[in-house]
Amino acid sequence: MRTSTARTPIALTIAGSDSSGGAGIQADLKTFSALGVYGASAITALTAQNTTGVSAVHVVPPAFIRAQIDAVFSDLDVRAVKIGMVGNEAAVNALADGLRQWPSVPIIVDPVMVAASGDPLLEAGGENALRAQLLPMADLLTPNLPEAARLLNASPAIDETMMVRQGELLLALGAKAVLMKGGHAEGPEAVDIFLDANNVVRLATNRIATRNSHGTGCTLSSAIAAYMATGRSLLDAVRGAKLYLTGALMHADSLNVGHGSGPVHHFHDIWKG
Asked: 180, 145 in Cβ contact below 8 A?
């Protein structure tokens, strides 16, 4: 029996599962929870992976991806959607068809194509489908520098001027806004650049020295979705998410998980002592 009339903020993640718990669906749901948002999920792929790499990928049948999306939206008051790993072209088509039934919900697209370990996470043909189907649906696209380069068939940006130019090109492909993530760049600052039709905003924090960076992209994009589900504007959500990720990286070394690149600390503000 429901006793409260206050709306519970709900976000949906559509992504792959990480069996080690540091990225993908698991990282997204941890992030939603840490930020006070109820998380729902539609799983696009199962991965056998740990902190050292990905050993196997099993893509979920497209009809079942669509069934998950329909089940969530038919009952839950979803206020934001994050899309991560999609697996292949058929999966892209299925989730795009499902989301077109709910055009008023903001969509954050994290174009996951290759794992940090270098293992491929998107089958041949999937990149073209991602460009054609998901970029025009994206209220925000959040590529890192290698992902932006792959989407544009270009070399990765090496400075902020190139980051801005590639962000503009991604806007031209249909995304309403782009967050160019500079985590793969060098220098004392971690610089991201937000672009939309009217703004170019430089977002910088001190670069955190840690090897435990597994799931950073998933965490950032899901934090943006979480903040949007609570009613924040897009740029305010991006600013808040960057601060949250910075805290998760600052506390990542307090975790001792695995033998490779461990996870960020999603619950750094909750797990005390």
From this structure: yes
